[in-house]
Amino acid sequence: MSSKAHKVAQYLLNADAVKLNPENPFTWASGISAPIYCDNRRILSYPDERSKIKNLLADTAKKSFPETEIIAGVATAGIPHGVLLADCMDLPFIYVRSGAKGHGMKSRIEGRVIPGKKVLVVEDLVSTGMSCLDAVQALRKAGFAVEGVIALFTYQLDEAAENFDRENCRLVTLSDYGTLIDVALQSKKIREEDLESLREWRKSPKNWKK
């Protein structure tokens, strides 16, 4: 586990972007019952954490995807982090809607579309990966060369790894579920007796019970 992953996990906890509660789990939109809920948009309200994450995001993007020419945010939560990254790297920014507009140009991709350009997709967090991979498919269809996906956080679900492998798309994240649990324990956000339940959830989210 890198010090970067630990730092980002702490920033997320500082901003109350992550809530952990194995005794009273959350229900995701997908219907999955989970002991964790993450809303990285909260980071935007904390200037210090926002700035630190922006810089780490830029450093990671430059090292992992050095040929990037355009930054693409995934609507909606990936847009602000994508804008911050594009500004930090002095690169053009575009974003991908979940679906084409029903009016005007009926665009799915907002911004200047330049086929052949190398684009890096930005997402706030990855669960199964389906939303950002849908954006990846839209960008490829429009003629972009997708370098990969960069995200602040991943739940480390096996399903996500399988989905990214199937789409032949590289995923790089600043932090992850395992690291977050360790940092949360050190920060006394969770109890030692919560660990087993939290770890069991990641192994089989659909079958997990509190």
Count all strands and give the number. 10
Can you identify the CATH class? Alpha Beta
The residue ranges in which pLDDT falls below 50 over 5 or more consecutive positions are none
Number of helices: 7
Please list the strands of the largest sheet in the order they lie side by side: 7-6-5-8-9-10
CATH architecture: 3-Layer(aba) Sandwich
Distance between the termini: 27 Å
Q: Radius of gyration, rounded?
A: 17 Å
Q: DSSP strand (E) fraction?
A: 15-25%
What's the number of structural domains? Answer: 1
Mean pLDDT rating: 93
- Biggest sheet features: 6 strands, mixed
Proportion of helical residues: 25-40%
CATH topology, by name, is Rossmann fold
Shape: globular
Which structural class do you get from the secondary structure elements? alpha/beta
Order of helices and strands: HEEEEHEHEEEHEHEHH
Descriptive tags:
single chain, 210 residues, alpha/beta, Rossmann fold, 6-stranded mixed beta sheet, two-stranded antiparallel sheet, 7 helices, 10 strands
Folded structure, characterized:
The protein is of the alpha/beta class and 210 residues long. It has one domain (3-203): Rossmann fold. Helices cover 39% and strands 22% of the residues. It has seven helices and ten strands. The chain has helices at residues 3-14, 47-64, 78-89, 130-141, 158-166, 177-186, 195-203, and strands at residues 18-20, 26-27, 33-34, 36-38, 70-74, 93-96, 109-110, 118-126, 145-154, 171-176. The strands form three sheets. The chain has a six-stranded mixed beta sheet with strand order 7-6-5-8-9-10. A two-stranded antiparallel ribbon has the order 1-4. Strands 2-3 form a two-stranded antiparallel sheet. β2 (26-27) and β3 form a beta hairpin. α2 packs across α3.
